[in-house]
Amino acid sequence: MTTPTPSLVTSPTPSSASGAPADLLRFTTAGSVDDGKSTLIGRLLYDAKSVLMDQWEAMERTSQRKGLSHVDLSLLTDGLKDEREQGITIDVAYRYFSTPKRTFIIADTPGHVQYTRNMVTGASTADVALVLVDARNGVVEQTRRHLFLAGLLGLPTAVLCINKMDLVDWSESVYTAICADAERVAREAGVRSVHFLPLSALLGDNVVDASTHMPWYTGAPLLSTLESLEVPRPENDGPFRMAVQTVLRPHTTEHHDFRGYAGRIASGSVSVGDPITAYPGGLTSRVSALWLGNQPLTRAQRGQSVSIELEDDLDVARGSLLAHSNAPQPVAEQNLEATLCWLDRSPQVPGTKYAVRCATAEVRGLIDSVDGILDLQTLAYAPSATPLRPNDLGRIRLRLAKPLAFDSYANNRVTGAFILVDEASGATVAAGMIASA
After folding, report:
1. What is the pTM of this model?
2. pLDDT in the model for residue 13
3. Domain end: 305, 324, 343, which one?
């Protein structure tokens, strides 16, 4: 657990013809109601020169109609009519901006308990959780809940922003006490790395520019912290995994015998000549060629969308999972344990069959049992005789019609995550994280 300090400027990893991912950081905001999440994001975008003139003029007009003496920066992210009228965040708002050092995708998520599912959705693809704490209130129940969810969803890093420092007279002792409390909660939640900084989103102190009101704070402001933050991504160094999205068979004179298995590499890397095992069948072959569009490659890595040719014609189709044969292998099972977030507005109906989608695979299945539901007050799983309800997080057992190839979510957030889809309506009713077979 460290307080962020200034670091050397590094150049971003470019997105080039090789298809390698650029230096992109995805982060989600979290915190209690009125902690200032939307205002902070608005301030960050404004001070980083990422607000268009027409957006600014529209915000000025809306702020004047609301009788405010200042421009309400939260309007940049609170896009729904109900959000603007109530002054709260309901939906997940995504915003994009870049600096010379890094590209960012922000997921601004709600603080209300009844929108826990929205926070789970926004955090599911994030690298970092940016958690706001009102300096007047300190660590509250929602702070604990959001740190717990960050740990549950496998986010390795959190940035704790102690906001509204102007309302506590820029007090160092208040900041220090909140940091100590938050560090303990983050450790219990399983968040491995936490950075702390004091700021005022409304006034802009320590958001993009260093604050003159807090000379006792020697760390970097928020934007510099986000630009220099090194986030461990297990998928980069993990074993090769690629879910097959489609099988390419051009049937042209030039490519009459071409068979390529196309998909996006979820983790690790693969090279020509590597031994490959296809799941769930367990068939093996070797990579004979790699293609990025029409460009041949000798090696491909996580994040690239490629097609793979194999030396042998295997029974591989959409939904198959390709893995390096000499690395830890995925599991192919029909019964698995998982943590499930119920997303639907209607409660779970026991015995209902769903389409279970994991990466590109789809199988039928049902919830065999609900072994416990998370108590949002104690943050412990408790037995429950009732089905899952909206926003519930439960530990479940899932029974599938046929084997599904997967990794545990702790090892791979792509091949270890799944959704449940109602076959009649096509609605996504739940999202899950696989624990084990």
Report:
1. 0.79
2. 34
3. 324
